[in-house]
Each structure stands twice: as structure tokens, then as C-alpha cells.
């Protein structure tokens, strides 16, 4: 009976939420080891994610050129990665070394709290002859529950079978200076690019807005060489520039490198359509929550009693004989009041009350305790509670 409404919810979520969160994502090969207390070596990454939690992050973790032996420190640090919208964490697997299927199984065996969402297959050579090998890796990963597959040929891929096999295929991994966005071919939204040796000053907004306008899936821009595992010197600038490019291309100046780093949001006004879309999206989401809330509330009041709705006890105390307590409330109950405990009169039957308006009057010093324990039955809804101890 939920189906028509659930289907509507899913449709609305797809129509409004998904377009809001797609756009250029941030690819982050997180290859350094999280040394130090509180995973200190990763703290610049934690800061960048927290400051840009609206961006789509694709984080590649790599304990030891693959999962390596069990490393609880590493697994704990993975759980410390701050949350962000639709965050995807992939486990690095080197397809040219070791045991690819075994590595996948190792990640699959991690505790649920640190287990990656997907697998990033590194060092792919996207040729026709290798296709079936990679397809078997990917289907093994999917069978182990990894819903997101990244491939890293690091160069232009002409065989579209590779795009359809993966969720994200990295088709450029070379210097920032020699990158030309116009050279990208194929389905842009399923591609990422890795630009290394980028300038250590200035903004990357020109190339970021070109990638955003092309509809490219994700980008990583690093000041260090491809062979280095160090984090980029401009990690936070890069992340905030991608985050603020999201949802519409920049019409601002295309500052090239060499200038000082300016506020990436400045001169980068979101178009009216994006604002209207966002407002409608938020209203729809609120509506969905309202529908869900009303449904839950209706179900709660309409269905049979369940253990989790049992109120532990209901207590009415009046120790002052001169000041009787009158208690009159409506609530649902199937309480069987044990006669010895109830030295009071009730308007309902005082041994079995099925869904009455219960009215209890305690007229002299006593304690009336209606227990939710099975002996006494149970009550749910909004229980009466009255104390007059003095
Ligand atoms: C991280 O810790 C390991 C093991 O203690 C050590 O070998 C390595 O040099 C450390 N790396 C850094 C960057 O501190
Ligand atoms: C990844 O690709 C699979 C297969 O095409 C698809 O079912 C899944 O929804 C994709 N996941 C994401 C997060 O896009
Ligand atoms: C920035 O824009 C100017 C003028 O439109 C153009 O000549 C220049 O090539 C652009 N620079 C980049 C890096 O796109």
C-alpha cells in the first residue's frame, strides 16, 4: 500500500535531489598514511571535506598499495573521515601486482563502519584484449557488494565498454600545464581527470569551470608530482573552488595561475535557474518529510500495540488526603488494574479497561501505579502523569 507514494518519493528525489548534487566532483587519492594521534596526517583532508561537505567527494583510500594486512589504526581513521553529500570511498587495488580478487575480498571483510563503498582499480590498460580480465574483476567486486567502481587508465579511452563497466573512469593523469579539456572524449559525466604539478599559487577556477561546463564527473588537482603521495599544497583552495563551481559554470574572470589566490566565490554568481531549482528542491524535500511524518504518525496511532510503545509505568501519587487529585485523560490502554494496588475509584471498569477514557480519582494518601509489565498489561500513547507529593 506504500508503493504509489514511495514511488512518487523516489521519483521526486531523482528529479530534484540528484541534479542538485551532481556536477563536478572532487576526486581525492588519499594515499598518505594517517600517522599521528587522531589520524593527524589526514587532518588537512578532514578540514577540506568539512569545509566543502556539499561537494561530491570521491575518496580513494590506500593502506598499503592495496588493503595490505589488517591495520586497525587505518580502519579507525577511515571512520573519522567527515561526512559529506553522497560521499564515495573507494579502496585502491593495483591491477598489475598481487592478488586483485584477494584484495577485493580483503576490503569486503573490513568492519562495516570502515568498509569502502567501492573499488578503485589502478594501473588499467584499457585495451580490447584486457577487457574480459577487468570485467571479471569488476563483477567480482560488485558481487562482494561494492556498488561503485573506479577505473584508472590515466589516458584517453576509446573502447566505450570501459565506461559502461565502471562508474568513474580516470582518463587523464598528467601535468596540469599540458591538460586541454577539449581533448576529452566519451561520456563526460563518467570521467575524472588528475592534474599534477599544478601551480602552487593562484586559482584553478579557469580549468575547473571548463570541466564543470563539460559535465566532467570529477577532478583532482595536485601541486605535487604523480609519483608523490603527499597532499597538495593547495588542497583547501582546490576543494572550495570545485565546491563553488558546482551547479553552473562560472561567468567570472578566468584568472590564470600566477596571481594571488582570490576568494573563489567572488564574481561567480549562481544563475537564477539554479537558485529557483534549489528552492523548489528544498520545498519538495520538506513535503516528502511531511508525508513520511504524517504516515508514521497515522500508523502509530492506528496499529496494534507493540512492545516499543509500552510505557514502563504510569504513576499517580497523592499523599495529601485533604487535596484530592483528579486525573482525567484519554489514552489507549489495555491495562488490567490489579485491585490491591488501586485504592481509588475509576470511571471505567477498574479491572479491565480496553481503550477507555480513563478517569482516576485518588482521594486519600496512596500511590497508584499502573505498570506496563506484562502482569498489568500495557499502555501507549500519551500517558498521564501526576505527582502531588507534598
Ligand atoms: C608513519 O608511521 C610509520 C610506521 O610507524 C613510519 O614508518 C612512517 O615513516 C611514518 N610516516 C610519516 C610520514 O610520519
Ligand atoms: C554504479 O554503477 C552501477 C552499474 O551501472 C549502478 O547500478 C550504480 O547505481 C552506480 N552507482 C552510483 C553511485 O552511481
Ligand atoms: C582567459 O580569457 C582570455 C580572454 O577571454 C583568454 O584570452 C585566455 O586564453 C583565457 N585563459 C584561460 C586560461 O582560459
UniProtKB/TrEMBL annotation:
The keyword Protease does not apply. It holds the Pfam family Spherulin4. Residues 252-263 have a biased composition (Low complexity). Keywords: Membrane, Signal, Transmembrane, Transmembrane helix. Residues 1-23 form the signal peptide. The chain crosses the membrane at residues 272-294. This is Spherulin 4-like cell surface protein.
Amino acid at each position: 500500500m506504500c508503493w504509489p507514494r514511495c514511488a512518487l518519493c523516489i521519483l521526486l528525489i531523482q528529479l530534484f535531489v540528484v541534479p542538485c548534487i551532481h556536477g563536478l566532483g572532487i576526486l581525492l587519492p588519499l594515499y598518505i598514511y594517517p600517522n599521528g594521534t587522531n589520524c593527524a596526517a589526514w587532518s588537512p583532508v578532514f578540514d577540506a571535506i568539512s569545509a566543502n561537505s556539499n561537494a561530491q567527494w570521491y575518496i580513494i583510500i590506500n593502506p598499503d598499495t592495496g588493503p595490505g594486512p589488517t591495520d586497525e589504526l587505518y580502519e579507525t581513521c577511515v571512520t573519522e573521515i567527515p561526512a559529506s553529500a553522497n560521499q564515495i570511498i573507494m579502496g585502491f587495488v593495483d591491477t598489475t601486482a598481487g592478488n586483485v580478487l584477494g584484495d577485493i575480498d580483503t576490503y569486503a571483510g573490513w568492519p562495516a563502519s570502515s568498509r569502502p563503498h567501492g573499488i578503485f582499480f589502478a594501473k588499467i590498460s584499457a585495451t580490447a584484449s584486457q577487457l574480459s580480465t577487468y570485467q571479471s574483476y569488476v563483477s567480482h567486486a560488485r558481487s562482494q557488494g561494492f556498488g561503485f567502481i573506479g577505473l584508472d587508465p590515466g589516458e584517453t579511452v576509446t573502447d566505450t565498454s570501459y565506461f559502461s563497466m565502471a562508474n568513474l573512469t580516470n582518463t587523464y593523469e598528467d601535468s596540469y600545464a599540458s591538460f586541454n579539456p577539449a581533448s576529452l572524449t566519451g561520456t563526460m559525466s563518467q570521467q575524472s581527470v588528475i592534474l599534477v604539478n599544478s601551480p602552487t599559487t593562484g586559482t584553478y577556477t579557469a580549468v575547473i569551470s571548463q570541466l564543470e561546463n563539460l559535465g566532467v564527473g570529477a577532478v583532482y588537482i595536485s601541486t605535487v608530482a604523480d609519483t608523490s603521495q603527499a597532499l597538495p599544497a593547495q588542497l583547501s583552495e582546490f576543494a572550495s573552488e570545485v565546491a563553488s563551481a558546482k551547479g553552473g559554470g562560472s561567468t567570472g574572470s578566468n584568472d590564470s595561475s600566477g596571481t594571488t589566490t582570490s576568494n573563489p566565490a567572488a564574481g561567480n554568481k549562481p544563475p537564477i535557474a539554479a537558485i529557483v531549482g534549489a528552492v523548489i528542491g528544498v520545498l519538495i524535500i520538506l513535503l516528502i518529510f511531511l508525508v513520511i511524518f504524517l504516515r508514521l504518525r497515522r500508523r502509530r496511532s492506528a496499529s496494534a500495540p507493540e512492545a516499543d510503545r509500552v510505557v514502563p509505568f504510569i504513576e499517580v501519587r497523592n499523599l495529601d488526603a485533604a487535596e484530592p487529585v483528579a486525573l482525567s485523560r484519554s489514552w489507549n490502554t489495555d491495562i488490567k488494574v490489579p485491585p490491591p494496588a488501586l485504592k481509588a475509584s475509576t470511571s471505567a471498569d477498574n479491572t479491565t479497561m480496553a481503550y477507555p477514557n480513563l478517569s482516576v480519582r485518588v482521594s486519600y494518601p496512596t500511590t497508584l501505579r499502573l505498570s506496563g509489565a506484562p502482569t498489568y498489561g500495557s499502555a501507549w500513547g500519551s500517558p498521564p502523569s501526576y505527582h502531588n507529593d507534598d
